[in-house]
Design brief:
A 5-stranded mixed sheet has the order 2-1-3-4-5, covered by helices on one side. The protein is an alpha+beta fold and 124 residues long. It has 3 helices and 5 strands. A hairpin with a 5-residue loop joins strand 3 and strand 4. The longest helix is centred in the C-terminal third of the chain and has 16 residues. The chain has one domain: Glutaredoxin (3-Layer(aba) Sandwich). Helix 2 packs across helix 3. It binds FE2/S2 (inorganic) cluster. The site of FE2/S2 (inorganic) cluster has 11 residues, from loops.
């Protein structure tokens, strides 16, 4: 099953207004995640609001039949994007979506917000 990274492109970090930039932090992070995921087996898409605005920037990592996660409190940096993509790669390689903590990139530690168990099959 393909692992998707969904990046909220409307997220704004607390200091966004003070920085007086046009581009949202979420859009900046999305660009960096898209660049980092190029050439991998991961898919990236954007959405407007994952309802975690208070802890921007937010992303979701999902695949059918696997544990799915939301992560937040990211700055739109290359380091964050690379960590998200590296972790999503481990998610893709995992049968269940669970990724051993010892393999987590530093950039994602402390950024997990929710974990969702996979939906049951139609006949369960
Ligand atoms: S704007 Fe990104 S979660 Fe709401």
């Amino acid at each position: 099953m393909t692992t998707w990274i969904t990046v909220c492109d409307t997220c704004k970090c607390d200091d966004w207004a003070a920085r007086e930039v046009d581009e949202t932090d979420g859009a900046m992070l999305a660009e960096r995640v898209e660049a980092a995921a190029r050439g991998t087996n991961l898919r990236v898409r954007r959405t407007s609001c994952l309802m975690g605005c208070d802890h921007s920037c937010n992303v979701a990592v999902q695949a059918a039949g696997k544990l799915c996660y939301t992560l937040g409190r990211f700055q739109p940096t290359e380091e964050a994007a690379n960590g998200i993509v590296e972790w999503a790669g481990y998610h893709a390689a995992s049968e269940t979506g669970q990724v051993p903590y010892r393999t987590w990139p530093v950039a994602v530690k402390g950024h997990f917000v929710t974990r969702h168990p996979p939906l049951p099959g139609e006949d369960e």
